[in-house]
Structure to design on (64 residues):
């Protein structure tokens, strides 16, 4: 589903994004930016099991 929206975005941001991606179409740039934002934030959800072997627990820590 697509929805038409009016955005006011700094032209320099678009120019930099276009240069980095070689995408000149503003709609495609915004869609790419939103897609990357979602991917980035979804991947930040951490599972405590990911920390195994990466943290040290104090020897005197009583887990009970």
């Amino acid at each position: 589903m697509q929805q038409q929206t009016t955005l006011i975005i700094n032209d320099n941001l678009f120019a930099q994004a276009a240069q980095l991606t070689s995408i000149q179409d503003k709609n495609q740039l915004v869609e790419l930016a939103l897609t990357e934002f979602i991917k980035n934030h979804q991947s930040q959800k951490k599972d405590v099991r990911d920390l195994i072997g990466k943290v040290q627990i104090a020897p005197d820590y009583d887990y009970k």
